[in-house]
Structures are given as C-alpha cells and as structure tokens.
Amino acid sequence: MLRLFHRAGLIPRRCTWEITLACNLRCGHCGSRAGQARADELSREEALRVVDELAALGCRHVTLGGGEPTLRADWAELLARFRERGVLASLISNGLTWSREHTARARDSGIHRLGFSLDGLERTHNCVRRANEGYAMVLRAIDLAALGGLEVVAVTHVTRRNLAELEELHALLARHGVAAWQVQLGVPSGNLAEDRESVLGPEELVALVPRLATLCRSGARPALFPADNIGYYGEHEETLRNPGGRIPFWVGCRAGLDVLGIESHGDVKGCLSLPSELNGRRDFVEGNLRVRSLADLWHDPDAFAYNRRFRPEQLRGACAGCEWGEICRGGCTWTSVGHHGHPHEFPLCYHRLTRR
Fold this sequence. Notes:
Number of helices: 14
Helix content: 25-40%
Structural class: alpha/beta
Distance between the termini: 26 Å
Radius of gyration: 19 Å
Strand content: 5-15%
Order of helices and strands: HEHEHEHEHHEHEHEHEEEHHHHH
C-alpha cells in the first residue's frame, strides 16, 4: 500500500493548520496544551504566503484550528484566500464566543464547512471543557451557524466520561441541524496524559465499535465519520471506513503521505496531533516555514521517515507479525505515540482484540 502512495505522488491533499495557540478554554483533552498564543506566531503576511504555498503543492482541503482560531484577527481573510486559490477551507471552533458577526464573516469568506467541538451532554461537556456555560454556548453557536446557511459539523473526543452518551449526542446534533459528526478516541497526550483514567481500554473499545457501526448504518443525520484512530479490519471495517468506496478499509496513517500539519509559528509535522515542543518532543517536527519553503520540507527525502520509509520489521508489540501489518503500519501514529511513546504499536486494534 505504501508503494501506491509513492506511485500516485506524495501530495499534501489535506492539511490541518493551527493558526494560533491562543484559547479561551483549558480543555481536559487538549493535545496541544493550548492557552497562550505563541510569542512568535506567523504574521499576516507570512500566513498568506503559507496559503499560497499549500495551494501550489496541490492541497485540496485545509482545516483552520487552534487553540481557538477565531482569536486570530485574520481567520476569515485566510479562509477567503484559500477560496481564491481553489482550496476548500474549513474551520473548527469551541463556539464559546461565536456570534452572528462570526457567522456572517465565515459565510462571506466562502468557508467550506464549520466545525464545533462537543464532548458530551451538558454536565460532561462543561466538565471536560472546564466552562460552566460551554454546552449552552456551543449549541447556540451551532444554531447561529446553521440558521446562517453554513454547513455545520461536530467533533467529539470519546473518553470514559462521554462513552455512555454517544447515541443521545447523535440525536441532539440531529435536532440542531448538524450535517456530519466525527468521533475520535481520546489519546493520553497533552492534557489528557494527566487523566489516563478517562482513556478507553480494550473492553470499552470492543463495545464501542459495533455501536458506531450501528449509527453509521442507520443513515440518520448527522452522518457519522469515525476518525483514523478507530478500527481496524474487523467485521465493521467497511461500515466505519468508507462504505461503497474503492478502498473500504484502513490503509495506514497518512501523515506525511497526503496529510500535513502546521503549527502557529510555522513548524511542520506530518499530522498536527503529533507531539512537539509543548509536549517535550521535536522528533516529529520536520522543519520551520521561516527557514525553508513548504515545498522544500515536503519533498525532503529524509522527511516523515516514520511513514515514508516504514518497514514491517518496525512494528512492535502485538502489531509485530500481524497479517495486516504492511498495510496498517501500526495504526494511527498519534495514538501509538500517546500510549507507548513510539509509532507502529497501536493499543486498541479492533481486529486484534476480537480475533479468535
């Protein structure tokens, strides 16, 4: 499978860009430990240049995030610049201060989709987000955006705190006009590394996957999209991954293959979720956009080696010797690193946990 990526051409088709680390919340699962803006965040002129570089490399879809991206003054200008360059651009917000003005600016920018984070029903969401009115504010934000004609999606990190609430959350999002819902496993990285008791274990994962598959098969809105750290290869794989698609199964972590992450001061990673300096690591940082162009970093033959130069003998633990190992490459790199400190050893593989 890796050979097919190389043959098709390594292009950063999807990018997640942390445009600021500033945030008005201190969420319990925040992998980037957001809060204060970095002292050296990219200027407006530098950020517009990055837009142009991404478009020139063939990027097709960018998600602007943070921190809280609306705390950066030029967020709508960046969305509009992507639209001018033919790139679909979305934004994900915590919704805490979203307003009618934000909705109008997003609509005028030509935004593709607008995402909001919702991490449980009222008590759970407010606890995770550490904001007493967070739940009410994000639902208000969703309503404002939907009434303003924007396509609204929601994102949820699944932990032990909200595991029992997922079906109710799906119904709640439907009532508020949400079009799509992404769920992903909470990973013991960043702030959640200090609350490992909230992270799902194997038995919970085995019970979770069929529940998600049932929601996927229902066809009810919002459409459910399990993230790349849920799976793999079990009886529900096609339902979770890509129903009716040409490749209806997990093809391995795409960081540095057709996915890219950019931090607010210009550091480049294969996936924005991978740890960097705020988590005491630099080994997943490929370089900085103030030092080298994005094209130089992307085409560097030594970059993103954990994926581009993967060999099956790098698989560790229970992933070593797996019949899917050459394709899977040990699952989601971020999740493996969060649990074990290194790639290629996925801790919550549905195939392995249910194999007879």
